[in-house]
Amino acid sequence: MTEVKGAALGVGAKAQPEFVQPGHVGKRNKYGGYAHFPGTGPTGKYCYHCNFYWERGQKRRCKKWMEITQATSNIEECPPIQRARAACKYFKEIE
Fold this sequence. Notes:
By secondary structure, the protein is mostly beta strands. Helices cover 7% and strands 15% of the residues. The strands form 2 sheets. A two-stranded antiparallel ribbon has the order 1-2.
């Protein structure tokens, strides 16, 4: 966070970042649970085509997000992702 001085936010107030990188934990993260921005991977590929995609019933998670953030060791505690979201730069074809 950046410290901002002035009347706009109040003296010594903390400015909120406008965007948080994927993989970072926080409420302001639009892409929480994704290892990187959806759509930055190969054209025509989706999360469910990826080796890092994990699904059990209605629970869908990204194993690469868990590896990058080390936020939890239990994959079921990771933020959910959408099955048909466009692949990210960490996409790895299922072998």
